[in-house]
């Protein structure tokens, strides 16, 4: 009578083989949790016009410190923050997935330098939203939640009207905007890019400008620049920008 064979489950077999003695030195076993991406800590949100601009940069390391080489994408989540007596962040259905970003074919997001940006237009005035993001690898391993950010959707100021004039030494911008419907006027932000290129995320000025003119002397003869300006309002202790103004082009002009 033949002896019945016993088949070991693949995982048990692999574990058993790992314990068998072999020739040469064997490297240290790496626990699976060490291979997941490190949590993102750069998540931010700002209102610009009628949208909340959610941005983050991808992780470069694994959770245990090793170099991350197989990043595949991101999962972005949002939840509506409810009044304190009703709010439940830990409830199973509190967060809804806003976007699945596949790095091989990213859709619904844009990349500016090292930042990934999602423009959330689905907003209700007065509602506070909370965001978090996770990254995942090609093998499907997910990171822990990122830092979480909250923003309340408000009525943004209207965009200003912009004019520009070049001279031999500078480009002078003139702009004017209406008082904001909500909050108080905090000034203006000036954006500059080279003609035909996207506007940068950060304005030229470090703090909102109080006046209605700006002299740009950091320009090079022979290059045409594109300019846009936003109005800034202070609403509930946070700055909110308008949508961009009309875009104007200007550069240095040689004297006749």
CATH architecture of the largest domain: Sandwich
State the strand order across the main sheet. Answer: 1-2-6-5
Helix content: under 10%
CATH superfamily of the largest domain: Immunoglobulins
Let me know the largest β-sheet: 4 strands, antiparallel
> Distance between termini?
110 Å
The domain tally reads 2
Query: Residue ranges: pLDDT <50 for 5 or more in a row?
Result: 1-23
> Approximately how much beta-strand content do the residues carry?
35-45%
**CATH topology-level name of the largest domain:** Immunoglobulin-like
Strand/helix succession? HEEEEEEEEEEEEEEE
Q: Regarding quaternary structure, how should these chains be classified?
A: single chain
Number of strands: 15
Top-tier CATH class of the largest domain: Mainly Beta
The average pLDDT is: 89
What overall geometry do the principal axes of the alpha carbons give?
flat
Protein name: Fibronectin type III domain-containing protein
InterPro entries: FN3_dom (IPR003961)
């Amino acid at each position: 009578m033949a002896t019945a064979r016993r088949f070991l489950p693949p995982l048990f077999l692999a574990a058993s083989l790992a314990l068998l003695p072999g020739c040469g030195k064997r490297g240290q076993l790496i626990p699976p949790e060490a291979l997941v991406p490190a949590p993102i800590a750069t998540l931010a949100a700002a209102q610009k016009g009628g949208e909340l601009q959610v941005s983050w940069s991808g992780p470069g390391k694994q959770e245990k410190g090793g170099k991350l080489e197989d990043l595949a994408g991101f999962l972005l989540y949002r939840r509506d923050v409810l009044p304190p007596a009703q709010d439940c962040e830990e409830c199973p259905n509190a967060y809804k997935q806003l976007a699945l970003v596949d790095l091989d074919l990213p859709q619904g997001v844009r990349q500016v330098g090292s930042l990934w940006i999602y423009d959330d237009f689905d907003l209700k005035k007065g509602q506070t939203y909370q965001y978090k993001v996770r990254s995942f690898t090609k093998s499907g391993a997910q990171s822990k939640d990122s830092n979480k950010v909250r923003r309340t959707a408000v009525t943004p100021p209207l965009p200003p009207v912009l004019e520009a004039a070049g001279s031999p030494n500078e480009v002078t911008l003139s702009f004017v905007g209406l008082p904001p419907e909500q909050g108080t006027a905090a000034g203006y932000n000036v954006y500059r890019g080279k003609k035909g290129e996207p506007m940068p995320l950060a304005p030229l000025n470090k703090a909102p400008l109080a006046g209605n003119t700006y002299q740009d002397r950091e320009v090079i003869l022979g290059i045409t620049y594109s300019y846009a300006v936003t109005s800034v309002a202070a609403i509930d202790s946070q700055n909110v920008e308008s949508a961009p103004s009309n875009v104007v082009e200007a550069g240095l002009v040689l004297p006749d």
